[in-house]
What does this fold into?
Amino acid sequence: MSHDTLAQERCSARESRGLPSLGPEGTALLRLLDDTFESWGAAAGAQSMTMPPLLPAADLKRLDYYENFPHQAVVATPIDVDRRGEFCADTGCFPCGALQPAEFGLPSASCYAVYLDHEGREIAEDTLVTVVGWCFRKENHYEGLRRQLGFRMREIVALGSREHAESHLCAFTDRITAFARALDLPLRKEAASDPFYDKGGSKAVLQRLTPVKHEFLYEDLAIASVNTHRNFFGDRCSITLGGTGGPAFTSCVAFGLERWLSALTRRHGSWAAANDAVRTAAGQLAAAGPVV
It folds into this structure.
């Protein structure tokens, strides 16, 4: 077997496990998209921040992450150096007994780190934050750039009053819709069924009556979402609203960057055509004015 053939087989094996790579053209388009989405946040007054790639599992547990999304959860842990020889060459895995307790979680969305970063703070005024981070989701199957174990997510997060959180989602819903129209990318908006609240609780009933998450789908793939958390994270993270002393309300807008790449290349046929479409559409929206 040639070196090139072996390398291709290894690359294919990584892709089947949700770990594809991006070449220069894909990387350029991903950066263009992220710059575009970040600029929307900046135009609305969002401050750019950088969050850690890992979060304490204990903190995620306090946010009900492992109760609401156990099927997606991925954790990280060091190996037990005294038992490192137990690595199994046949499976390519360390057995559980050769690992230390997993105290870190790999978050499935970028916004968790924002709420934990603001823990115990008083929000003096309505606030917007934008971050991009690696997110991780265990899936039943992986498929190219459509479904990955690890992918990048740009989020624009609102913290403050109920009105601020709600108007944030309204403004960016309009922005996403206008961008998709300019891209000639047919998207449909649907209420999502994520089990954000305990299925048996009163908040779960409210969620069914008023969905907390809407997704924008290309074909069957969600590439963006708008999410309201009411005062859930404000309460759990003791983020208070200045002047009221009550828990802050939060909402977020999320863009799965690799999923956008998949949708755009399927729609426009090539990296170059997708890149041109994004530049043209972004220019049209910039000329239309900032997000309000």
In short: The chain has two domains: 22-73+108-288, 75-103. DSSP finds ten helices and twelve strands in the chain.
